[in-house]
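re the bet — no i am not wrong, look at it urself. input seq straight from the record:
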Amino acid sequence: MRTPDWSEVEAFCRIDGWEEVSVGRSPDHRYHRLVLDDGAVLETRISHSSKKTMSQGRWRAILRDQLSVSDEDFWKSLRDKKPVQRPSRQPLEEEIEQIPLWAAELLTARLGMSLEDIARLGRDRAIELAREAWAKPNG
């Protein structure tokens, strides 16, 4: 996996419609924000060391956690000079927030449930299933 230098990440942000925010937050970084159509807010920071690159692990984390885009879409956006087309997110995040973290973690670990499945259960049913799973011996 090829990793970009910071100037390429900044070029991507310009193409993709990110805005620079809070210029003075850190002397070593520039901060950028993108508000998606569904209201989700993405933020990233870009090192002033524009020609330095990063490890593959760090790059994967930035793609996943900050830019919310695939490696392929990142490079395609730079090559074509067009913003990334992100699918609209499902409103599952709000539903998951209502379910206690302990219950979601237990349902994931013990029953192998996905977060989407847990969200569809609703708060009361998720707590009930988590308590049932907790009461059974692990194994």
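see?? The chain has a mean pLDDT of 84. told u. also Residues 92-135 form one domain. so pay up
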